[in-house]
């Protein structure tokens, strides 16, 4: 008998227990163990019903993702599920934690399912570029009908036990905390009441009811908008449709074919890289697991603007009290009003209850007095980007905050060491760079200064987890990882338009790659005045900042979405960017003024110049130790800038293109376009010479 799956008998119930930490993933050992335990249960004449239950924090959370891409070892999961479904003795699955992917599929192979009320179920394979490949696309619709099955399988959403009961996915919900006891009670009822073996594959009423409906075409049409460029969501619809058009065994065969197509797609590789990169990023290189972490039970925020308000919501959402300090009552009232509005919108959409909203608002206190920070565990400064102002604030914090409080800046570009230098405790100073909108975007780029202590580094990474962000620890330089790379892409995007491309052409190349928006739509979202103000300040300080057609937009009051006109124009109430002939004229005039002869620019050149320039910069970032690993950069871009997770992040993407191809192009543009950004990174050259990849670092 395998050690990870055991069989025992309690009374007249045979108990099959999976115990394979951390998440009982269906590794080869678990699959073999499940079959051996089932056989034992079948042979045990005193067992009248069988119970499948898991030890540890969760029911089976899916196939073992680490085995993907390696040769499959028998038994495959589909045959394990089939064996369970074929069992002559009634089989009950008792679910706690999360029954996900192959885990839910295994439960669907059992004849009854009972779940703790805290449990969730889901088929999240689509998030890994896959579809459920062990009968999930055929069995779930037989229980939940076409609409719900399609929703769950194409989005990968987790469904709480109570909803799963309503959809027919589980047969009972237990309010207790002991999953084994819940399972035993249900299994005993099966025996006592003589409840029959009930195989999901034999259920036909939902299939008959939904057959021939146009729900599949509707799903395909909506996926064209929500999953543009993705492979597996469309295959999910094909597989579910097969449950309605084909007999069960053939539906399973069709599911298998589609599963293999997904498994072989590069998007699957990208998605799985993203999954593990996110988890690896939380383990900071060189930081021992045993590093002490400080308690953060109260937070202070300076600035009630868009960033400060969004940051405050993250803490209130997880029950941590927040004090926001502003300079003026009016600004404070405005900021608190916006927070309330955001919560009201979430409540209206049913994402939170009225009580949750009230509780969260009650955790946020406004103040005009820095002294209110004297007892907080963490302060995050979120005022505008001005070094002198930040230094003044940190000196003040140093005099007010208790020893051991962490002093963080939400700066997106400025030098953390310089900010820390105004305090007597640079070891407690750190960057915590949130992305706008801060209550939505999942990235938290934590920036270590040269003196930041390990304890503070470990604490801000733990805080990220606590507030449900993806934390990445990076080094200190202008723009850190994300904005430093973005800046280089911005230079190229502007140059491409100067040379003859249209802004919408540049943006389309980026959205075709999978970004949610292009460079210029992003400028409109952020506000064109932001860059303009920075350029003007630099010019006033005597720096040589060349003129641009974007300055002209700002000077005409075309500040982006907020004025309904920027690089694009916008219709009332819409964020949809519409190309504007007026802007094309402004660009044309600018080219004439500057004596630039416009030329035809290919999409390939746009792709290379916008993306390879970032890869080259990323190699410099790695070389300088600003990022520890290529995967950290991937995570920054996926969660901070919407780089498509199915491409695995810009570093994974670059490795797939081939670093030799990228280096050759970088050298070509260095010679033709010039500029520091095209100077080939030594690391890139070294990796190509050694035949290594960025992912090897
Ligand atoms: C599938 O089932 C295909 C089938 O349809 C068909 C087959 C034929 N495998 O996230 P956490 C590790 S596809 C291996 O930090 P949490 C994870 O890497 C699968 N390892 O914890 C981490 O390791 P480490 C469908 C896995 O509490 C540790 O467990 N299932 C797997 O925040 C803890 O993870 C999914 O897509 C796995 N399947 O969240 C579910 N899952 O400590 C994917 C986790 O070394 N998993 N690990 O860094 C999740 O969504 C979350 O991990 C879960 C727990 C919600 C379960």
TrEMBL record:
3-hydroxyacyl-CoA dehydrogenase NAD binding domain location: 299-476
Native species: Marinobacter salexigens
TM spans (from-to): none
Pathway involvement of the protein, from the record: Lipid metabolism; fatty acid beta-oxidation
Keyword vocabulary terms for this entry: Fatty acid metabolism, Isomerase, Lipid degradation, Lipid metabolism, Lyase, Multifunctional enzyme, Oxidoreductase, Peroxisome
InterPro entries assigned: 3-OHacyl-CoA_DH_NAD-bd, 3HC_DH_C, Enoyl-CoA_hyd/isom_CS, Enoyl-CoA_hydra/iso
Protein name (database record): Enoyl-CoA hydratase/isomerase family protein
CDD domains, per the entry: crotonase-like
Pfam families: 3HCDH (PF00725), 3HCDH_N (PF02737), ECH_1 (PF00378)
Oligomeric form and interacting partners: Monomer.
């Amino acid at each position: 008998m395998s050690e990870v799956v055991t069989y025992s008998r309690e009374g007249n119930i045979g108990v099959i227990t999976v115990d394979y930490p951390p998440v009982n993933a269906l590794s080869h050992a678990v699959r073999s163990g499940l079959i051996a335990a089932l056989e034992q249960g079948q042979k045990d004449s005193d067992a009248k019903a069988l119970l499948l239950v898991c030890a540890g924090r969760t029911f089976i959370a899916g196939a073992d993702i680490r085995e993907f891409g390696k040769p499959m070892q028998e038994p495959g999961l589909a045959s394990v599920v089939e064996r369970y479904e074929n069992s002559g003795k009634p089989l009950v699955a008792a679910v706690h934690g999360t029954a996900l992917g192959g885990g839910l599929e295994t439960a669907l192979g059992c004849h009854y399912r009972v779940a703790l009320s805290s449990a969730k179920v889901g088929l999240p394979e689509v998030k890994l570029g896959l579809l459920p490949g062990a009968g999930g696309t055929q069995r779930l619709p037989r229980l939940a009908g076409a609409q719900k099955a399609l929703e769950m399988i194409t989005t990968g959403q987790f469904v709480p036990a109570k909803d799963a009961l309503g959809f027919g996915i589980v047969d009972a919900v237990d309010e207790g905390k002991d999953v084994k006891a819940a399972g035993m009670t249900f299994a005993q009822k099966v025996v006592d009441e003589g409840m029959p073996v009930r195989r999901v594959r034999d259920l036909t009423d939902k299939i008959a009811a939904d057959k021939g409906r146009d729900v599949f075409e509707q799903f395909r049409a909506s996926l064209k908008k929500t999953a543009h460029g993705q492979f597996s969501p469309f295959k999910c619809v094909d597989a579910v449709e097969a449950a309605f058009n084909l007999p069960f065994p053939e539906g399973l065969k069709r599911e298998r074919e589609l599963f293999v197509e997904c498994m072989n797609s590069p998007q699957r590789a990208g998605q799985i890289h993203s999954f593990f990169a996110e988890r690896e990023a939380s383990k900071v290189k060189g930081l021992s697991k045993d590093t002490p972490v400080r308690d953060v039970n109260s937070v202070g925020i300076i600035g009630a603007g868009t960033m400060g308000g969004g940051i405050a919501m993250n803490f209130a959402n997880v029950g941590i009290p927040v004090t926001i300090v502003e300079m003026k009552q009016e600004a404070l009232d405005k900021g608190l009003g916006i927070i309330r509005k955001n919560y009201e919108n979430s409540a209206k959409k049913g994402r939170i209850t009225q009580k949750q909203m009230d509780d969260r608002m009650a955790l946020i206190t406004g103040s005009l007095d820095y002294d209110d920070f004297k007892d907080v565990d963490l302060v995050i400064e979120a005022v505008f980007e001005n070094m002198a102002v930040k230094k003044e604030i940190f000196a003040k914090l140093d005099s007010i905050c208790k020893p051991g409080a962490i002093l963080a800046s939400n700066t997106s570009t400025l030098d953390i060491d310089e900010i820390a230098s105004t305090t007597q405790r640079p070891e407690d100073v750190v960057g915590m760079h949130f992305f706008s909108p801060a209550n939505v975007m999942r990235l938290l780029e934590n920036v270590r200064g040269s003196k930041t202590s390990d304890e503070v580094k470990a604490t801000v990474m733990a805080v990220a987890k606590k507030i449900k962000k993806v934390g990445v620890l990076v080094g200190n330089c202008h723009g850190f990882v994300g904005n430093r790379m973005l800046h280089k892409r911005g230079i190229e995007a502007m140059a491409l338009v100067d040379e003859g491309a249209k802004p919408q052409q540049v943006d389309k190349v980026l959205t075709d790659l999978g970004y949610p928006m292009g460079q210029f739509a992003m400028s409109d979202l952020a506000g064109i005045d932001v860059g303009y103000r920075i350029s003007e300040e630099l010019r006033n300080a005597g720096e040589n900042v060349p003129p641009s057609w974007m300055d002209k937009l700002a000077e005409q009051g075309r500040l982006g979405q907020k004025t309904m006109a920027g690089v694009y124009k916008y219709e009332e109430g819409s964020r949809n960017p519409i190309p504007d002939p007026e802007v094309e004229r402004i660009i044309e005039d600018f080219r004439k003024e500057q004596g630039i002869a416009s030329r035809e620019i290919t999409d390939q050149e746009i792709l290379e110049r916008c993306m390879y320039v970032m890869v080259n910069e990323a190699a410099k970032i790695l070389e300088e130790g600003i990022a520890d690993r290529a995967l950290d950069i991937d995570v920054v871009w996926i969660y901070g800038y919407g780089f498509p997770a199915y491409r695995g992040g810009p570093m994974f993407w670059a490795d797939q293109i081939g670093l030799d191809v990228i280096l050759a192009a970088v050298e070509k543009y260095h010679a033709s376009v010039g500029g520091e950004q095209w100077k080939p990174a030594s690391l890139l050259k070294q990796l190509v010479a050694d035949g290594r990849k960025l992912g090897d670092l």
